[in-house]
Amino acid sequence: MPGFNTRNLTVHVGGHAYLLRVLSDRQQFADPDGHGERLGISSAQWCLFGQLWPSGKLLAQAMARADIAGKRVLEIGCGIGLPSLVLQRRGADVVASDMHPMVEPFLAYNAALNGLPALHYRQLRWGHPLPALGDFDMLIASDVLYERGHAELLAKVVERHSRATCELVLIDPGRGHSAELTRLLAAQGFEVSESRCPMDDADCDARGRLLHYRRAA
């Protein structure tokens, strides 16, 4: 792909091997028309979408086990989109979303690499309502609360795009903002359960958390 370097990696989830095209490292940057800059993506942040992060792999593993029967699913801040690819393989009604201008071609390429139909993708900026996106039975996200104010923005996305009966599955690597999200979602009628999970083989303290928010009609 022009302007930056990529590599392929293989990840095993739910008994399947997924081949992914990702950015070769965290030094990649290409924004020749300034599209990313206009969206507020700095040169330091530009490469983050194109990595497979431990939280994304954990969410993909959770989606390999999740009950998805009859549910419409939205992945928020999908990045490289492995959880959505896992859901696509399982036959889920899934929409992947992100704000980065390069996410859509990477998702299409990776779906093709794995012999899957192209994912349904929508560019979603959390602070800009997108009524045409519709609402969902399940929302999923990984490591999206990494800046102050993200909890409030994410809570508003949930409010706009959740059905009366809804769940949010969130992998949080312990950045410190999930308590605020829990408070905001409680005001929307969500209850939360939590399970600890190691972020990688070196995480002896299991600092990661799988947060499962549920709201009954």
UniProtKB/TrEMBL annotation:
GO terms for molecular function: methyltransferase activity. The keyword Cell inner membrane does not apply. The lineage of its organism: Bacteria, Pseudomonadati, Pseudomonadota, Gammaproteobacteria, Lysobacterales. The keyword Kinase does not apply. It holds the Pfam family Methyltransf_16. It comes from the Bacteria. GO terms for biological process: methylation. Keywords: Methyltransferase, Transferase. InterPro entries: Methyltransf_16, SAM-dependent_MTases_sf. This is SAM-dependent methyltransferase.
